[in-house]
Design goal:
Helix content: under 10%
Structural class: mainly beta
CATH topology of the largest domain: Jelly Rolls
Distance between the termini: 89 Å
Number of helices: 1
Largest sheet: 6 strands, antiparallel, barrel
Order of helices and strands: EEEEEEEEEEEEEEEEEHEEE
CATH architecture of the largest domain: Sandwich
Radius of gyration: 33 Å
CATH class of the largest domain: Mainly Beta
Length: 291
């Protein structure tokens, strides 16, 4: 006698596998892979719920979270018999951290402004000079590239370093080197004591600057260093704290016009530093920015 088995082929429900827990930062794309899910007949639908009001379908999908927090991501898989299963994973989302550390801004140009040769452009000399010698007063403008920084960057410190090498003697008074903000844009190919760009003069011969209070030709510098008259060059860097001015440039408060350097009083106090054109890069001006 033959007995027929009334039970047909077994059709097992699928088993969902959403993958391992993950961590990411806001705004960053993160990938989810449901290919570890199984079914004896075949999965026809992969549905993802990202726990932030958005969903997606597909074996592998990507998603970016806009708000920090911990999210439970659910994968639901359905086979051809409409049987389904689900699995979850956790995603921890944090705010991105700002890189910390110090780096150097790229020096673009520095020019000497010399009173006794008011129309001469000094763009490639190996030194910059400040103060007054026997026959002339000297000032300088200097520019560094800040385009690598975003207005949202937190700048903890910015330091301009100048390498002092001259003069060995002859100063009859202290040299107080002050740093201001050039009030107008200048072009290193044309800037001089009289002119700031091609065919355009400074409003005031010798250059126009704004001080820390925003006053035109003001006397409150962003930074200053005193070189006493009895002191001779010790061939090392001297540091100017230009944090507030660099922050203002990076925030977008002002167009980056660089630094305007002059002596507080200009009489018998001539000194010189190596410039951006000096052959040895270890002695050129540096702008160190710390985030």
């Amino acid at each position: 006698m033959v007995v027929n088995d009334p039970v047909g082929p077994v059709d097992n429900a699928p088993v969902a596998d959403a993958g391992e827990d993950q961590a990411t930062t806001t705004g960053s794309s993160i990938s989810f892979d449901g290919s570890g899910s199984t079914d004896d007949k075949g999965i026809v639908l992969y549905s993802w719920d990202f726990d932030d009001g958005t969903t997606s379908t597909g074996v592998s999908v990507t998603h970016a979270y806009t708000t920090a927090g911990t999210y439970t991501v659910t994968l639901n898989v359905t086979d051809e018999s409409s049987q389904s299963d689900s699995d979850t994973l956790k995603v921890v989302v944090s705010e991105p951290t700002t890189p910390t550390g110090s780096d150097y801004a790229v020096g673009v140009a520095d020019n000497r402004l010399r009173q006794n040769k008011p129309n001469v452009v000094y763009s490639t000399t190996t030194y910059i000079d400040i103060g007054k010698s026997q026959n002339s007063t000297s000032r300088d403008v200097m520019l560094f590239d800040l385009s690598a920084y975003k207005p949202t960057d937190t700048i903890s410190k910015a330091t301009l370093s100048l390498y002092w090498y001259y003069a060995e003697s002859g100063r009859t008074s202290d040299t107080v080197v002050d740093i201001y903000r050039p009030a107008e844009k200048w072009d290193s190919k044309y800037v001089s004591w009289n002119n700031r760009v091609s065919g355009v003069s400074w409003t005031t011969a010798g250059g126009n600057w704004s001080d820390m209070n925003g006053d035109s030709q003001g006397s409150v510098p962003y930074a200053s260093v005193t070189f006493p008259k009895g002191m001779t060059p010790d061939n090392k860097y001297y540091e100017f704290d230009v944090t507030e001015l660099v922050r203002a440039y990076i925030r977008g408060d002002y167009e980056n016009t660089g630094f305007f350097l002059k002596a507080r009083t200009e009489d018998g106090n001539y000194i010189a530093f190596y410039s951006l054109d000096y052959p040895d890069p270890a002695m050129r001006p540096k702008l160190t920015i710390t985030r």
